[in-house]
Amino acid sequence: MMAKHFFVTIIIFLESPVGVGFSYSNTSSDYQHTGDKNTAKDAYAFLVNWLERFPQYETRDFYITGESYAGHYVPQLAYTIFLNNKNANQTLINLKGIAGWEWLDR
Ligand SMILES: *[C@@H]1O[C@H](CO)[C@@H](O)[C@H](O)[C@H]1NC(C)=O
Ligand SMILES: *[C@@H]1O[C@H](CO)[C@@H](O)[C@H](O)[C@H]1NC(C)=O
């Protein structure tokens, strides 16, 4: 009898920045401090909290993609993940790759 292996891919849709789609804040001042830097910070905080809630996925390979202005958000979030892993001297998020280059030159 052969063992069967199942590989489940988890896809998280995160709308950025705050105020877009299903992403919101109950703190009105959050809407005055949007911008690429805070968007990366918010997305990073979301991911860290998500992994705390679902630690079984902590070691999974992680990829980021996005469309439109995510051509900015994707590499900025990747860089934030890279810096935090480096500063902690450990892999907090197991980033393996990114894609989504629209809007990179705008
Ligand atoms: C924000 O406010 C709404 C409406 O009062 C509430 O349902 C929701 O739980 C609040 N969200 C957070 C994160 O506090
Ligand atoms: C990470 O390693 C560097 C170099 O060894 C060290 O200076 C730093 O304190 C370490 N940071 C943490 C959070 O352990």
Automatic annotation (TrEMBL):
Q: What top-level branch of life does the organism fall under?
A: Eukaryota
Subcellular location(s) of the protein: Secreted
Which InterPro entries does the record match to this protein? AB_hydrolase_fold, Peptidase_S10, Ser_caboxypep_ser_AS
Which PANTHER family does this UniProt record tie to the protein?
Answer: CARBOXYPEPTIDASE, SERINE PROTEASE FAMILY S10 SERINE CARBOXYPEPTIDASE
Does the record bear RNA-binding in its keywords?
Answer: no
Q: What class of enzyme is it?
A: hydrolase
- Protein name (Swiss-Prot/TrEMBL): Carboxypeptidase
- Family that this chain belongs to: Belongs to the peptidase S10 family.
Per the record's keyword annotation, is Secreted included, yes or no? yes
- Coarse class of the primary localization is secreted
Give GO BP annotations, semicolon-separated. proteolysis
What Enzyme Commission number(s) apply to this enzyme? 3.4.16.-
GO CC list: extracellular region; vacuole
Tell me the keywords, alphabetical order.
Carboxypeptidase, Hydrolase, Protease, Secreted, Signal
